[in-house]
Structure formats: structure tokens, C-alpha cells
Amino acid sequence: MARHDIDFSELLDVARLRADCRTIITEKDRPQLEVRAALLPILRRASVEGRQKVRELLARDGSGLNCARRISWLQDELIRALHAMIGESLYPEGGHIAVVAVGGYGRGTLAPGSDIDLLFLLPEKNSDNMRKAVEFLLYVLWDMGFKVGHATRTVEECIRLARTDMTIRTAILETRYICGSETLVETLQTRFDREIVADTGPEFIAAKLAERDQRHEKAGDTRYLVEPNVKEGKGGLRDLHTLFWIAKYYYRVRDTEELVKLGVLSRKEWLLFEKADDFLWAVRCHMHFLTGKAEERLSFDIQREIAESLGYHSRPGLSAVERFMKHYFLVAKDVGDLTRIFCAALEEQQAKAAPGLTKRVISRFTKRLHKIPGTLDFVEDRGRITLADPDVFKRDPVNIIRFFHVADINGLELHPDALKRMTRSLSLIDNDVRENEEANRLFVSMLTSRRDPALMLRRMNEAGVLGRFIPEFGKVVAMMQFNMYHHYTVDEHLIRSVEALSEVDQGKAADIHPLSNKLMPGIEDRTVLYVAVLLHDIAKGRQEDHSVAGARIARKLCPRLGLSAKQTELVVWLIEQHLLMSMTAQTRDLHDRKTITDFAEKVQSMDRLKLLLVLTICDIRAVGPGVWNGWKGQLLRTLYYETELLLSGGFSEVSRKERAKVAEEELFKALSDWSQKDRRTYSKLHYQPYLLSVSLEDQVRHAKFIRDADKAGQALATMVRTDSFHAITEITVLAPDHPRLLSIIAGACAAAGANIADAQIFTTSDGRALDTIMVSREFQVDEDELRRAGTISRMIEDVLSGKKRLPEVIATRARSRKRNKTFTIPPSVIISNGLSNKFTVIEVECLDRTGLLADITAVLADLSLDIHSARITTFGEKVIDTFYVTDLVGQKVVNENRQGNISARLKAVMAEQEDELRSGMPAGIIAPAPSPEPAPAPPRRTKASA
């Protein structure tokens, strides 16, 4: 629906508004402050009622463009009524100025929270009263709460500034007369076209495209961020605006429909432009109405409501919000397609105009075609691959795949004209092309390229080719997962996974994950690994397990790609098990032999282990910025090395006691500069789990720490160390052992705002706890991180010593953080006696919140369960906590009634239904320092990894 087809009269009674404004200035010499105060309720009521009507109409007809046009019209009438009143009664000279809309407002569109961008044009001979009229109008708009961007200039000043300032030039390009002197506006537009626009098209285009590229780079240079910026992000409204600015400047059009007559866009493409514009405006207007402000980021906490407002419903495998966001990303992709098509037409037009342009422009746009060795279908045009003739794709549709392959092996950019023709030829990719042996060989060659396979995959995806060639991939294009863990759409995640693999393959990531870089050169079948990485999440969005469904897709697709039966089965296994290593490393006790034996039974061979390790690393790294860290790398390396020992026959339970004895002797030797008494005392202080899992370097450091605390008579002491490689800060706590100690330390960390990544928790032979808590690092500079760690340590000491009460400090922290109501994760508890030979394993899954770990461990203590080890893993808004426990006599929990009680209590606290568990926490547990003589009794705790 065009602007002139909209009935605006239902929004506002213009005659009544102007009459109401006149009634307040019947008294002569009334102070201006009083006039403004009297005007405010009249104008505000008209604005509020009008906008409410606009919101109702948006809900009724769903058109975002019409909504934006209605708000713009409403704003026009408010300004016209105000300007008329000023000119009639306060400053008659105000009628000689022109009030002009610029920017988005100049296009006749406004979002509910948009700034009001105005240009006040003054005649060359102007007066103070004209400027006072402008000030009065602005003050009233500000009083109404509008954000007004404004400039007051003469026509000459506008022209002079436009010559050097591209922002001002763009603003003037979109001037639209509102009220006042129409002659001034006509003069400005005439002079602007004649003195600025003429012969400066290439300059303006280059500036706008460079500005767009900088904006994209700042926003992450991808249109597939799961919380996109609707206005400024790649594929958003600003990209459409940029195209319109260029069209208006270069082609001198006032409406995008005119581009069809000029042959720049087909009618279908113009309709796509309008459809994308309308959809993005609808999303943006709903966002502003919902939040009550100019919110441009489509964040998780509003996506559900926007999806509901736009009428989306859930379907099998995809929720309503995921269907909405998939539509959003497909529209963003359409915007990218339109950009390529538009730029191709633009370049062609400028090439034709080359004789009349400057030498710089001639060098940019004159055709300079060169042959490309090995092909007659494609030619090189200034470093870009293009078509030798218009029928290249039609003559042989395999050329669509070959186009990218030739670009890859020759390191060429893609010509926009070729991409435009490709976008219009996608229907040529049918089953014959998909089954074509040459097409599949070329694709696998690109996928496993030693150059930059992710670049070609991304270009194929942007052009719509990848989803047509592999229809299963097409189903995950633009698909988002509604959670805080995944930062990108599924297709973008898969391409970034290949990018991470290519980085490892080229030996560029040794500092990030040294083991995979060491193993990669020895992996014989790169094709299997690249195919598995590309396809591992290809079945997302289905009702069944995506690993199982993905393996089934791979079994069908791999032979088509030219893989042998053996290669196919290996790809199928990798996809089916692609989460196995990650989940085992992050949620299981890697020092429990059953963990390693169970994992090794599934992996079965060293070849599989190597491939799975690299796939796992690439998968995690491609999730999003900050998801991968050195600590996760360390967990994967530990799992790899322990499994390697078992698969190669080097794992032996029998040697455990002997290895512990040797470790104790090595510690004794390492303390050579101590007295014999201290060497014996502190080398015999630890049990097997400590001696077998803690490095000798750390054992020496701990021994010094404990001895210093004993000499100082400290029952409670802490020690801090930063670790930049693992992105971890260690806080070691020495304290009398206590059943609730882990709960209290976890609560203190939560109260200090620290995220626990892991912990090593040991009991010494004299009844003390030696706990090393690993918290995620926040600051890059060690000095800053050490100060933060000191704050966390003091919080732990204050809570343990009773100076602060844990329920109070956690409550304070919880109040300071906004409760996450966006996501719903039903609490889950799984109790298993088959995951460990010695312990009952309790795995809980729920929505993360402040103090959760403290609450869960407190419940386990209340239930008389002894925590021997624990793993705390966070996936965005979700946590999976795993606890290895026994009862108080060291046995597994086998009674079904007791297991049911444990499950019920844990689910209750995860759902925050048992607030009483947060009270009753002991105020302090510090006892006199025990004698450092070895105690004969076994420890109540052995070791934990939380």
C-alpha cells in the first residue's frame, strides 16, 4: 500500500488540533513559558492518542511501512499545528523559515522511538525572531519528550557544508518539506542537484559503501547473529536505506519502483525490496512499542513477544520464536541478494558512462577482461571472476558450482554481475546437478581446499547455491536456536566450524589448542573430517535427536559426494557421536576410571579419537565469541590423554597405589631445602587422589602455602594465581573440613559475582580441606584480575569465618541482577549407579541463577550425601551439574525411595520452591587449627571437580 493510499484522518482531527492551539493564545502578551505549558497537554494528548491508534492499526494490518508512515504523518501534523500557531501569534517572521524533515523522517517513515530529524531553513536575510521561532518550536517538542536532531542553516550554508561532509550531503538528499517557506526548500533541492549531485555519483557511492562495510565490521560482519540489530546490522534496514540513498543520488529517482523502469531491478526484485522493507519496519515498530524506547537490538527477552505479535505459531521441531527468527534471517539474506544485484547494475551503468567520467572512475569501471587458464566459460575482470557470456549457467548448470571452484583455485573475488545472474539462475540446480559426479567432485575439492574453504562456502551460501546443491543444508539456512549458548544461525555455525578446522589444518592455531595442531598433520583422511564438520548439525530443528538424524542424512549424502563406504561410515559415526567428547569432558569426572573406560568403549580406535577431538574443538569454537577457552581445551586434552593410555594398553588400575607412592617420594625430594621433619610432615599430608591428579609443581606450591598458614596459626587461608592461557583464575582455600564447605564456598563465589569453571577439592590426612576453585577470568591484565580475585577471596573468608551471612550476601547479589524470565528449562534430575564403579552419579539440568550451586550442594548435604567430585558446566542460560556422591558410610545410593526423595528435593530447589534451604546456613565453621600430624581415619571427601 502506497503512502497516498493510507487514510490518515482516523489518527488525528487536524482542524480540532489547530483550533485548540489557537485558543491558548487569545490573550495578548501572555508569557511564553505559560504558552508552552498550555500547549503541552494539547499536543501530548494528540500524540499519545494518535500513536495508540497507530499501534492498533499495526496489530490489525501488520504493515510495518504503513505504521512508519502513519507515525511520520502524525508528527508532521503536530509540527504544522505548532508552526502555524507560532507564525500567527508569537513570531510572524517564523512563517518565512522552512521546516524540513531529513534522515529517515525525510523519507516519510518514523518508528515509535525514532529521533525527529529536522532542518530549519532560513532566508539569506534572517532575523533574531526567526531563530526565536525555531527555539520555541524545539522547546515544545523537547517538552513533549521527543529526541530532536536539528540544524538551522541558510541554503548557502547547506550547500557549502554538503561539499565536504558526506553525512550532511546524505541528510539533504532526503529533505522533505513539512511547512513554512516552500520556496526555500525548492531552492535547496535545485541547487543541491545542480552543484553537489552532478558528476559526484561515484564519490558518493564509494563513501556510502565504505560506511556500510565499516558498520558491518563493527556489528560482527555477519547477518546471522541470533540477537541482530534490526536497524544497523548486516541485512537490516540501514542496508536498504543505503541502497535507496545510492539510487536516489545516482539515478535521481524519488521512489524505488522507478528502478524497475531503469532496468536496475526486475519487478520481482523490487517487490522483494518492498516486502523486506515492510517486514523489517514491522519488527522495528513492534520492538519500539513493546519496550517503550528506541530499541534496535532484537534481544532474546523480546523475541518471543515480537513473534507472538507478528502471528507466528510453533511447528514440529521449531518453536514460534525460532520460526520468526528464521524468517527474519531469510529476509536479511534477501537484503544481501538485492545489494549484490543493485551493485552489479550500478557498475554496469557506470561502465557505460565511463567516457564522461574522470580518469579515476575510468580505471574503476572500464572493462578489462582477461582469460583464466583452464576455462573458456569464465574470465577475469580486475581481480574478479565473471562470465564469458550470459548463457554460461544455462548452457551447463554445473558451471554454477564450477564458478566457485575456479574462483577458489585462482584466488579471485566474485563479480557482482555474475552473482546477479547466478541468483536469477538458482532454479537450474536440480537433481541432475546434485547427482552430477563432476559437480560433487568440485564441491568436495572446495570444501577440503588448503586455501580458505569457509570463504567459498559462505559465498555459496550467500548466493543461495549451497542450500540448493545440498537441500538438507538449505533447511538449516537462517535457522536460529533460541538459547544464549549459540551465537549464530545453524548454517553460519557450520561454516564457522569449517573455518576453525581450516585454521587447525594450516597450523595457525597452535597457541589456542596445541594438541589438535600436533595431531592434524597425522590425520590421513582430511575429507572425512571436513565433511563431518560441515554436516554435524545439519539435522537441527527436527523432532528427533539431531545427531541421529544427521547421521542418517550423512549416510545418504556421503556416497553422492564421492566418499567410499568406509569413509561414509566414519562420517556417520562422527556425526552421531559429535557431542560425546564435549559432554564427557565437561560433565564427567575425568579421574574416575569408569568415565574413561565407557568413553573408550564408544571410541574404540585412535583414529576415531583424533578425528573426534578435532571435530569437538571446531564445534565449540564456532559456537560464538568467548565460548571456547583454555580451560575447555585442558579438559579435552585430559580426556584424550587418559583415553589414549587405555586404547594403547597403558592404563592400569594395579599401578595406582604404586604411582601414588612414587608421587609422594617425588614431593619429598622436591622439598629438599626444608627440614627433615617438615619434609615428612607435608609430603605425607595427602591421599591418593591428590597425589595422582595434581602436578608436582602445584604440590610444592600447596605445601609452602599450608606450611606458611600453619606457622602463622591460620585456621583459614587463601591463595590466588592467575592463568591467562586457560582463561582461569585459581583461588585455593585451606580450611577445616565441613560437610557444607563446598556449598558455602560456591555461595561466596556467587555472591562475589564469580563464575566457577571447575574446582579441585581434597581432604588432607589431618582433617583439613584443600580446595582450589577455578573461576572464569574477566580481565586480560593480571593486575586487574588479581584485584578481582582478592575480592572473591575476601568474600570466601568472610563467609567461612562468620563475618558475613551467606543467605544475605547471595540475596543482595540476586537483587542486583535481573531475573532471566526469557527462557524456560524444566528441572531435570538423573541418578545413575552405572557411570562409576564407586559412586552414585547425580546429574541435574536447569536454568542458571545466582546461588544455584550453593543451594544444590546444601540440599545434598542435608540429605547426608558425601560429594566426592562434581562438575559444573554452563551452556548459556542452562547449567548441567554432575555430582559423584556416596552415603556417609561410603556406599552407593541404591534404595529407590531414597533416590526419589533426592530427585524431588533437588527439583524443588532448582525451581526455587524451597526458600527455607537458603536459611539455616551455619554462620561460621572456623575451629582451632588442627595439629599437622597424620590422622589414621579416611577422609570424608576425596576430590571434586566442579
Please characterize this protein's 3D structure.
54% of the residues lie in helices and 11% in strands. With 946 residues, the protein is α+β, with helices and mostly antiparallel strands. It has five domains: 3-190, Beta Polymerase, domain 2 (2-Layer Sandwich), CATH 3.30.460; 204-363, Nucleotidyltransferases  domain 2 (Four Helix Bundle (Hemerythrin (Met), subunit A)), CATH 1.20.120; 367-469, Hydrophobic Seed Protein; 491-534 and 550-556 and 565-648, no CATH class; 715-918, no CATH class. It has a four-stranded mixed sheet, with helices on both faces. A four-stranded mixed sheet has the order 5-6-7-8. A hairpin with a 2-residue loop joins strand 15 (865-875) and strand 16. The radius of gyration is 34 Å and the shape is globular. The two termini are 59 Å apart. 44% of the residues are buried. Pfam families: ACT_ACR9_3rd (PF24931), GlnD_UR_UTase (PF08335), HD (PF01966), NTP_transf_2 (PF01909). Residues 929-939 have a biased composition (Pro residues). Its EC number is 2.7.7.59, 3.1.4.-.
Distance between the termini: 59 Å
Strand line-up across the major sheet? 3-2-1-4
What count of helical segments does DSSP give? 41
Q: What amount of the residues lies in strands?
A: 5-15%
Counted up, domains total 5
Overall morphology: globular
Descriptive tags:
single chain; 946 residues; alpha+beta; Beta Polymerase, domain 2; Four Helix Bundle (Hemerythrin (Met), subunit A); Hydrophobic Seed Protein; 4-stranded mixed β-sheet; 54% helix
